[in-house]
Amino acid sequence: MKTTISQVPKYTDQQVRIGAWLDNKRSSGKIAFLQLRDGTGFIQGVVVKNDVTEEVFQLANNITQESSMYITGTITEDSRSPFGYEMHVSDIELIQEAVDYPITPKEHGTEFLMDHRHLWLRSKRQHAVMKVRNEIIRATYQFFNDNDYVKVDPPILTGSSAEGTTELFHTKYFDEDAYLSQSGQLYMEAAAMAFGKVFSFGPTFRAEKSKTRRHLIEFWMIEPEMAFVDHDESLEIQEQYVSFVVQSVLENCKLELQTLDRDISKLANVKAPFPRISYDDAIELVKEKGFDDIEWGEDFGAPHETAIAESYDKPVFITNYPTEIKAFYMKPDPERSDVVLCADLIAPEGYGEIVGGSQRIDDLELMKQRYEEHDLTGPAYEWYLELRQYGSVPHSGFGLGLERTVAWIAGVEHVRETIPFPRLLNRLYP
Predict the structure, then answer these.
(1) What are the tens digits of pLDDT across the range 350-377?
(2) What domain count does the chain have?
(3) Could you tell me if 151 and 218 lie in one domain?
(4) Are residues 153 and 291 in the same domain?
(5) Exposed, middle or buried: residue 427 (CB in 10 Å: 0-12, 13-18, 19+)?
(6) Residues 287 and 144 grouped into a single domain
(7) PANTHER family of this UniProt entry (predicted)?
(8) Domain boundary pick from 42, 64, 96
(9) Residue 339: inside a domain
């Protein structure tokens, strides 16, 4: 029976055949222990000299790291294995012998590993991180599909900036200027006016020359947008979504979290509702914690966000930021024109902002005023203004950064390990 490692629990005490690579091995004279991987998981293959031909045993002893093979054996339960099963090998068919595999079971520098990212992905730790990422994506689709959202794909090439910043990758679109998208949000607002509740999931780009552990040049965003939904309703949706994703990872990635040595007790507590603190109170909080250099009207940096997060054991919303430091499309607080109806969701344990959202301006005249204040002229923004002209409604949305969320849930220090092939300030290879 040909199968995969992830499926072997179905075949206890049965003989199976698996296509695999050798991750590592050790030998104790008459027994060889092969650490095997096939992309779906890892399992130990035990080769006993007296149970196989001399040819097979010699192959088991001599096979090199990352050589590929078809391996046949009987699946048995093994309580000592994190996976819970092992294979008692009866035959090995070598497909290709790998020679001088560069990533050996020893310490390698980060730059070396990043240069060999195409191979580093095979390691047990990187495999676990990518499986957590995959589960977050799977749970995302389940959450929004179960709640009647429509998946809409915004363009990657755009004629304007969503955030009104200069951190854009410029390109030529035939005879016009174009930019790589830094957010699909404006287009998702248009989609929400057509479908009510929508979400997108796609790559975004920021030409920000940052080298921090929280930043990538190319990253993926989940961006829902909802018609007839106000700011407070949006916060409830955000905390329900994040809670659902975290609990899904806890349920479906137990082995991966164990591989990563993740303290799951901190994740088990991530359930809605989440605490909320206003920007005003957050400023006072960080000052009490010794950050005397920040003043009202300034944005929080990573140390400030960490200080705020340390006061809570769940993700925390910071709400109602000053109008001047937020995007042009955010709706002012009806009771205070100097702040907007927005929130950033700060992850615990120093992982920073993972979600940013707001209620959008739905008033045509106010949006025209914002256009003038931000010098948003020309045809590139005209269609967005028309959304307020034809059947405008209260609406809200948010964006979740996938890689930062993976880093937090997996307990990974740097976001470069949370995406298969990271694009960093000085890295476009491989």
Answers:
(1) 999 999 999 999 999 999 999 999 988 8
(2) 2
(3) yes
(4) yes
(5) middle
(6) yes
(7) ASPARAGINE--TRNA LIGASE, MITOCHONDRIAL-RELATED, ASPARTYL/LYSYL-TRNA SYNTHETASE
(8) 96
(9) yes
**Three-state SS for 203?**
strand
Question: What's the DSSP call for residue 296?
Answer: T
Max Cα distance, the chain (Å): 85
Contact 286, 299 (CB under 8 A): no
DSSP 416: G
CA gap 15, 11 in Å, rounded: 8
Alpha helices per DSSP H over 253-360 = 254-259, 264-268, 279-288, 302-309
CATH number for position 283:
3.30.930.10
pLDDT tops 80 at residue 166: no
Neighbours of 156 (CB within 10 A): 14
Contact 298, 325 (CB under 8 A): yes
Helix H or strand E segment including 285: helix 279-288
Dist CA 149 CA 388 (whole Å): 22
Residues 241 and 346 reside in one and the same domain: yes
Note down the domain range covering 158. 118-417
Candidates 384, 390, 392; CA nearest to 160 is 384
For residue 365, what are the contacts with CB-CB under 8 A and spacing of at least 6?
A: none
Would 80 be classed as within a structural domain? yes
For residues 402 and 407, what is the distance between their CA atoms, to the nearest angstrom? 9
Separation in Å, CA 291 to CA 276, 302, 307, 309: 20, 12, 9, 14
Predicted TM-score (pTM) of the model is 0.96
Query: pLDDT at position 210, please?
Result: 87
pLDDT at 162: 65
Domain finish residue from 65, 96, 127: 96
User: Average pLDDT, whole number, for the chain?
Assistant: 96
Residues 67 and 180 in one domain: no
Return left, alpha or beta for 267; rule: phi > 0 is left, psi -120 to 50 is alpha, else beta: alpha
Q: What is the CATH number of the domain that holds 46?
A: 2.40.50.140
- Residue 91 pairs in a beta bridge with 72
Strand partners, 92: 71
